[in-house]
From TrEMBL:
It comes from Nakamurella endophytica. Residues 44-286 form the NADP-dependent oxidoreductase domain. This is Oxidoreductase. SUPFAM superfamilies: NAD(P)-linked oxidoreductase. It holds the Pfam family Aldo_ket_red.
Amino acid sequence: MTTDLPAAPRLGLGLAAIGRPAYITRGRAADLGDPATRSVEALRDRAQDLLDDAWAAGIRYFDAARSYGAAEQFLGSWLAEHPDRRPAVTVGSKWGYEYVGGWRTDAAVHERKDHSPAMFDRQWPLTVSALGGEPDVYLVHSVTPESPALGDPALLGRLRRLADRGVRVGLSTSGPAQRHVLAQALALPDGPFTVVQCTWNLLEQSAGEDLGRAHAAGWLVVVKEVLANGRLTDSAALPSVARLAAADGQTMDAFAIGAALARPWADVVLSGAVTPQQLASNARARVPDVTGERLRAIAVSPQRYWTERSALAWT
């Protein structure tokens, strides 16, 4: 990839932050305004406009999940309005969490995790109904070492049957043990998985080697949380990264996305934009003219990264 190649062909749009009124991204008050104005209808309108902008920018990968509030419905209604676009896009979604926040920003609990076969049986038809058809990619949402998903024969059998029907089955990962979960999934005999969606960003680079292994094995590698939930944007207090970005002639968000695009194993890098301005800035990303050693020096330990992430407030 050359440094002047537009990001859009490998940039995707993730709907985690626009599909529900509360999320852990910093700066949501500035992005979305008063929480009282974040009705289903208001966020649907925002999502529709954002999807139109993404399409116009050349973005063709769209990511949702059962736990992202009404994200699947928002995406499904947009696809229904533009049926000619469906063959040109890749639609991904995830199961294993359900949204329980009641469309409140102050909910005590926003999502509930369950990787049982019963949960899959319940959520798959809900996904198909919301999207208006089957997704191209379907992931077990946020597999960690505590999850039973990789050792449950009944669940793996269901996922193999789904893969046999042509849906690309995979998993998303979270937490400081991401690389170990991915290694376990790669080592499964007759495993159903050919996709991984993993957190990789300038602060959390620990899974890079294993993502390279997945890519070499023919898996689709999708990078999520590339802006570290708003911590890698110009509004964040990370002067060392800001100086590198400025010296490279990029905003911090574009610089961080460009660093992910530079990974040879990264097939899709997700933008989590919620405004047209954020999306346009993300789409201007280019591979930084900065040595790998200087980029690696930005990283913190996985334990520190995920501890700080878990402390972010839902707003």
